[in-house]
Amino acid sequence: ARRALIVVAAGSGERLGHGRPKACVDLGGRPILAHVMERLHGLAQGLPTQDPAHQDPSHQDGAVRGLDAVVLVLPSDQVSYDQLATVGEQFSAATGVSVHHTRGGGSRSSSVRAGIRELLRAAAADWDPARTTVLIQDAARAMTPEAVYARVFAAVEAGAAAVVPALPVTDTIKRVHAEPSATPGAERVAETVPRSSLRAVQTPQGFTLELLQQAFDFIGDLPDAQAETLTDEAMIAEAMGVEVTMVPGSQSALKITTAEDLAAAQATLAQRET
Ligand code: CTP
Ligand code: MG
Q1: Ligand closest to CA 139
Q2: Which of 98, 130, 231, 236 could bond 215 through an S-S bridge, CB–CB 3.0 to 4.6 Å?
Q3: According to CATH, what is the number of the domain 2-166+200-273?
């Protein structure tokens, strides 16, 4: 069995508003991408993770499974690319894991596809796709704990073809009518959605390489407009009729999207360091 991780870090960070790719933005003295990699040292070296939510079966048979390859999908501009490639090289030097870099595309899904192409080109050409697990992580979820990666790897290795980490929804969620309210800027409630059946999905999402290859063939056969509605790989799996398995996510794995999110991540870091 093989384990690969693709980190998509090519987004422009429009909503964060720093005028540079989000993965390069400073969080406590390091670029956001460096925080993702920092949490992966134990996993990379095949050390057992302390995970209260899941016994990692990859250690039950005494085997140690680290990471076989990492692909970082980076922004195209040379300054950002070089800065983030350095993060990858440092991770590789510290862990011995082979790290490959490539440039992303104009959408998250095209960046994921670029990552898979690079994985196949640089590392996985002779790997058995059915026995290769690929995790796809958003660089924007900088604080995802190692235990979540371990849980997703373990679930795929236990036989699930598609796995997503998720948390129960704590807010009350209401569906609104498409047509606006008579009050300017307001909306009309259609119904309250029962919260007990809702989950908020995070990354890393895990798949067999075999399923990812099938997913891109499937997408390629759809009309563009329909393909664009399938914004992540788990949605493609659902559209293909493949069962998607959910494992527990983490409160720490929140996505950094806005300036407020970055401030919250900064506060969490500062708390840990005191
Ligand atoms: N991503 C990517 N390539 C893109 C768009 C997004 O690799 N063309 C990645 C981002 O780097 C991020 C993840 O997908 O790690 C989730 O995207 P999002 O949070 O939307 O990040 P951005 O697209 O950078 O932010 P924004 O939408 O505000 O511009
Ligand atoms: Mg985006």
Answers
A1: 1
A2: 236
A3: 3.90.550.10
